[in-house]
Every structure is written in C-alpha cells, then in structure tokens.
Design a protein that fits this description.
Elements lengths: L1 H14 L9 E6 L13 H13 L2 E6 L2 H9 L5 E5 L8 E3 L4 E10 L15 E5 L6 H4 L5 E5 L2 H10 L4 E5 H11 L4 E2 L7 E10 L2 H20 L1 H6 L5
Parallel strand pairs: 1-2, 1-3, 6-7, 6-8
Antiparallel strand pairs: 3-10, 4-10, 5-8, 5-9, 5-10
Helix pairs in contact: 1-7, 2-7, 5-6
Amino acid sequence: MKKNILFLLIFFLFFTGISVAEDETYTIGTFPIPLMVEDKNTGIFIELTKEIAKRSKIKIAIKVLPPKRITTYFAENKLHGFFPALDVMVTHKISKSEPIYIKTDFGFTKQGQPLVKSIADLTGKHIGMTLGYPYSKEITANLSFTTSTAPSDINNILMLDAGHIDVFVVEEKSGIKAIEQSGKSNICYDSGQPLSRQNVYYAFQSDKTGQQLALLFSKALVEMKSDGTFENIMSKVDE
C-alpha cells in the first residue's frame, strides 16, 4: 500500500509540471509545543521537518511564533506553509501533506464519576477546555453542554480535581502529562473511546508552489514511514 502511494506521489511530481526552485528558501511556520517545538532548532517536529526538507532537497526557514500569528500569517500568504496543521485551523483552500498523525481527544473525569465514552456523554455537563487548543467542531459547535477555558492543561486537571468542571477534554498524551505534572492520581479516562479524531499534517498554500511542497513533503513522509525513520523520530515522545 505504501509503495503504491509513493509511486502515485512520484508520478504527480514528474508529470504535473509543477516545480520548486532549488535556490529558494521556503518559510514554514510553527508554534511552541513542549517537547515537539522548543525553538526553531529543537523539538521532535523540528527534527522531523528538517529531515523531510533534507530528503526533498529544499531549503527551509522555520519561523516560531504564537499559534494565532502563524495562522494569520499563513492566511495572509506570508508563509509557504505551517505545522502542525488541522482542518479547524485553516479558513481557505490549502494543499495538505500526508498526515503526520491522528490527534485523538478524550474526556478525562475524576475517579468515581462515570467514564466519558462519547460526545453524547457530555450532555448537560460543564466541560473544561484549554485556551488556544484546536478542538474539533464536534466539540466547539456543540450546544448540549457548557464550557470554560483555562490557560493550561494542568489548570484544567486541578479544576477537575476541585470539582469546578465535570470533564476535561484534551489530547491523550497531553492529558496524561498534565496529570503527572499536577501530582493528581484520581483522574481517569477510557483509552479506547476517543471523543474526536483529527488528521494532523503540513499545510501549504493552494498555488503551484504549495502543491509541489505538499507532494514533496508527502513523498518524504511515506518514505520515512516505510524505512523506520519516522517512527525513530516520533517515538522520542515516549522517552
């Protein structure tokens, strides 16, 4: 299957007539994420992106800014692309790379309370959310429950423990890390029942350059997933 995808990507690269300039530097935006994006030179996503650029034989400049500024600059065509991107973060037509991973959000509850297994289980409850976090529209557009935001995942865990919220919705690894950092041991979730799933990818402009960059990044990602490089880089999250 991966070989078929790689063949199709190579076919499009050579026969669509789209090309990128070898001497041009492409500006790719991102935003701070603990462990994943520490600065423009450090982080798991940074390492992944640099390896992709190396394999694609293109020059890139990584710009690290707050999330809102990155998405604004991208919408204003001041960036060739940005990462990590989700559909809820873009407002216009774009070119997407092969997914980096699938972001799954779960409902965390205080021990002794019913586990949250679906969005329907949130009905009538007070839901804690983290400010600036890219929640799916299944969550943000739902009027069957009330929400409040906190500045960090740890704040939400503490509010959950204190009974100020009924459920904290967040990505699995982020939630687990926040529990560890908060020192609380009475927070639970059902690891087999995610509330939402969102593809995470590299977003590029929809012009010819953006289309070519998306194809190049996709080709490199497929190769890296096939030869084990992708897993070697991304597995550092669990170290």
